[in-house]
Amino acid sequence: MTPPRVVLDTNVVLSALFFSGGATSSVRAGWQSGRFVPLASKATVDELVSAFGYPKFQLTVPEREELLAEYIPWVDVVRIPNPPPDVPRCRDARDVPFLQLAVAGKARALVTGDLDLLALAGDAGLCPVLGVKEFVLEYLAD
C-alpha cells in the first residue's frame, strides 16, 4: 500500500524536530518510518528554514543543518504550477502556500495547529485538515 501524502504545517515540523515527547514525536517517527510521506514546496521549505533562524531558537548554522537533515530526506517536493491551483480563501495569507501544496500534491491530509487552517476543515475541494492528535489517531495509531 502506498503511504499517504501529507502536508505538515511549519509549526508541526518544528515541534516534531524539537520535542521528543507527545503527539509530534509520533509524527516524526511516522515520516521517518515511511508511514506517510510529507510534502513540501519551495515556499514551505523556505518558511521552515526561516523559522530555524528565529532568535528564540538560538540555533547555530550546523544545528539548523542537522535539523533539516532529520526532515528533508523523507520529503516529496512538489512543484507548484504557475498559475497556482485555486484554494479556499484563508484568513492568513501566509497559510496559502500550504493550501496550494495540499491541492497540487494531492495530499490525503493537511496537519496543523494553526486555527486559521483548522477553520477550513471540511471545505469542499480540500483534503481533510487535521490537528496533530487527530492525525496521529487516524493515520499512525497501531
Count of alpha and pi helical runs: 7
Number of strands: 5
What is the N-to-C succession of helices and strands? Answer: EHHEHHEHEHEH
Poorly predicted tracts of residues: none
Report the portion of residues in β strands: 5-15%
Give Rg in angstroms.
Answer: 14 Å
**What shape does the CA trace take?**
globular
Q: Report the average pLDDT across residues.
A: 94
* Share in helix: 40-55%
End-to-end CA span:
16 Å
Structural class: alpha/beta
How are the strands of the biggest sheet laid out side by side?
Answer: 3-2-1-4-5
For the sheet with most strands, the description reads: 5 strands, parallel
Task: Characterize the structure shown.
This protein has 7 helices and 5 strands, in the order βααβααβαβαβα. By secondary structure, the chain is an alpha/beta fold. It has a 5-stranded parallel beta sheet with strand order 3-2-1-4-5. Strand 4 (109-111), helix 6 and strand 5 form a beta-alpha-beta unit. The radius of gyration is 14 Å and the shape is globular. The model has no long low-confidence stretch (mean pLDDT 94).
Summarize the structure.
With 142 residues, the chain is an alpha/beta fold. The protein is built from 7 helices and 5 strands; from the N terminus they run βααβααβαβαβα.
Helices and strands in order, then pairings?
Elements: E1 5-8, H1 10-18, H2 23-32, E2 37-40, H3 42-52, H4 61-69, E3 76-77, H5 96-104, E4 109-111, H6 115-118, E5 129-130, H7 132-140
Parallel strand pairs: 1-2, 1-4, 2-3, 4-5
Helix pairs in contact: 1-2, 2-7
